[in-house]
Backbone:
């Protein structure tokens, strides 16, 4: 039996408190606290999943195989690991388990589990975009940016790129704490915010990268053993809206040669192992319009939604497509209404259909539901339209970006 748990938005717990912040581009998403429910998709029969909030029984039944589940009694502030540590029974279960698989290793995770995981300090280090950019430079890979540590350096870097610049927080994730700086006015606004924080004693550390002509986003996934051995798990093609992740699926063979890509990252996995990291790794990359590849945009030394889709895909003869469906809900509506809307369309991968991966806390005025659509790639658009029609027919209102997956 494997015990699974984890804190999504882990980057916020790795980020040093003294770092200056970019101007807010949306703030914290409160739904992140309930995203540990998505770990359902990793669970094998008999696994124990510990989550921050209770999981709706119909959502557990939708999974298609029996697992054990336990919600922490009263969630503590902070990572879910803190709540587990405060519960004697759950803490003892974790300490006595043969296999413990957290979503990410935070300081609270390391304190809870102990020496069977890499140190939280190492994990924080290798997840920093500063560390990955230094590695890209060291290995001579394309796509390197420039790390800036003062407002003046930021101005110089953006100006040198003639305002084709992306400015990234070293611990930003999924488009949060990332700004596209395309005009002198935007640059002046960012500079003012940073100077004010620097004058107050906060430390500036940002990555400036050129905005390249992108054709597709994709990611490569590895599992690093404690002895440094790297197992290549596969690729995932990602769909983004702007800089926000919307979904992922198996890429067509013509997108990138998987064997070549895995071989090209040997220096990256060796550096991770040398730093003292082992565990799951997702490496974000880009295919450019001229056919060239930027093999390392950033390193996610943790589990990821791409890895989740990859594992769901490997369980099915069909292709698993991760998709986000945003819904407006009336008072009293919730996940039961979503599952009812999909009656006759549900599947665990044995046939074309949809697996609902989260939504126990879904309530008015609405929110986001993650779905795994199992189908042939050519049928994906048809299935998305079918799912949108199903929720419309049930009186639920889709909103936002239902046309992307």
Residues:
């Amino acid at each position: 039996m494997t015990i699974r748990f984890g804190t999504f938005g882990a980057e916020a717990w790795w980020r040093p408190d003294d770092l200056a912040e970019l101007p807010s581009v949306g703030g914290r998403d409160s739904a992140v606290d309930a995203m540990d429910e998505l770990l359902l998709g990793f669970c094998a029969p008999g696994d124990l999943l510990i989550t921050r909030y209770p999981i709706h029984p119909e959502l557990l039944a939708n999974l298609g195989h029996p697992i054990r589940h336990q919600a922490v009694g009263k969630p503590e502030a902070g990572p879910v690991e803190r709540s587990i540590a405060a519960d004697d029974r759950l803490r003892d279960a974790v300490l006595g388990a043969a296999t413990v698989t957290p979503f990410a290793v935070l300081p609270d995770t390391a304190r809870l589990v102990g020496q069977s995981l890499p140190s939280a300090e190492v994990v924080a280090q290798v997840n920093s975009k500063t560390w990955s950019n230094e590695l890209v430079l060291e290995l001579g890979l394309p796509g390197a940016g420039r790390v800036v540590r003062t407002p003046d350096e930021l101005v110089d870097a953006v100006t040198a790129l003639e305002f084709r610049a992306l400015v990234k927080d070293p611990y930003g994730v999924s488009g949060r704490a990332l700004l596209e700086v395309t005009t002198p006015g935007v640059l002046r606004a960012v500079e003012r915010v940073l100077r004010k924080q620097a004058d107050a004693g906060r430390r500036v550390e940002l990555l400036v990268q050129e905005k390249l002509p992108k054709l597709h986003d994709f990611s490569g996934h590895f599992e690093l053993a404690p002895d440094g051995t790297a197992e290549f798990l596969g690729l995932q093609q990602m769909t983004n809206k702007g800089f926000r992740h919307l979904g992922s699926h198996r890429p067509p063979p013509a997108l990138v040669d998987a064997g070549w890509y895995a071989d090209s990252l040997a220096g990256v996995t060796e550096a991770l192992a040398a730093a003292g990291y082992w565990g799951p790794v997702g490496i974000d990359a880009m295919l450019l319009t001229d056919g060239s590849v930027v093999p390392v945009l950033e390193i996610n030394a943790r589990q990821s939604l791409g890895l989740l889709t990859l594992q769901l895909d490997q369980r099915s003869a069909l292709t698993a497509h991760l998709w986000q469906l945003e819904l407006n809900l009336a008072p009293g509506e919730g996940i039961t209404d979503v599952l009812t809307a999909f009656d006759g369309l549900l599947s665990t991968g044995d046939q074309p259909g949809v697996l609902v991966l989260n939504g126990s806390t879904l309530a008015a005025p609405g929110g986001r539901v993650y779905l795994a659509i199992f189908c042939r790639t050519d049928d994906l658009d048809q299935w998305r339209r079918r799912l949108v029609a199903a929720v419309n027919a049930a009186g639920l209102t889709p909103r936002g970006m239902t046309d992307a997956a």
About this structure: The chain has four domains: 2-117, 144-210, 213-309, 316-399. Confidence is low (pLDDT under 50) at residues 401-405. The longest strand covers residues 230-241. Residues 2-117 form one domain.
